[in-house]
Amino acid sequence: xxKLILCCWVTVFVFIxxxxxxxxxxNPLPGDDMxxxxxxxxxxxxxxxxxxQFKYGDLTVTGGSSEWVTGExxxxxxxxxxxxxxxxxxxxxxxxxxxxxxxxxNAIFGNQRNSWDLQLSNDVPIDLIVDAxxxxxxxxxxxxxxxxxxxxxxxxxxxxxxSGDWHESFEATIDTGVGETTIFLPNDVGVKVIAKTGIxxxxxxxxISQGKNxxxxxxxxxxxxxxxxxxxxxIGETVFILK
Length: 243
Fold this sequence. Notes:
243 residues, mainly beta, 7% helix
């Protein structure tokens, strides 16, 4: 309930800023066209913790990086500050990237651009945390070696692709606020979704209901590998679909 109340207030706030129309800034901010490159080179780490803290804009995360992490950040708001850090402890590497503001109050809409395109390595186990505020978020996680996933999204569209072949079980927590969410799931490994639905429509295409908001695929009963998802949805349409 607390989540839904917060979502409602966020929705009201967004529409106030937007004038009940497309998201536009009340006072557009000055800024130059800025690009930053992210490269975290491979080292001796045997596991990565990746933490992405994104406030607004367009966020894309995929696999296939030739290093631990690569990416490009493109933004036009000179009040944005992006901090990134990589540390190692024994055989564990930890990468954090966080969007901050140089001032306490930061307008977030209008013609200002803020897009992150991050690629992660397929060659190492990863615990991934993504905290996305007001954004369109696309997480194509196929091919990664995930050992854990947490996604917390505020306002905007969310697309998460967990289809494909997985060789190790893991648990995921997906918490969405306001907007459309699509989550693609694999056919050939076990899937279990525990859904806590809010105000909106939630559908489960190709999944079998076990009652009490629990859904599984056909492979769940026999697969040695299981992806278990606890999903809390807010306002909007959410679709879980086998792919």
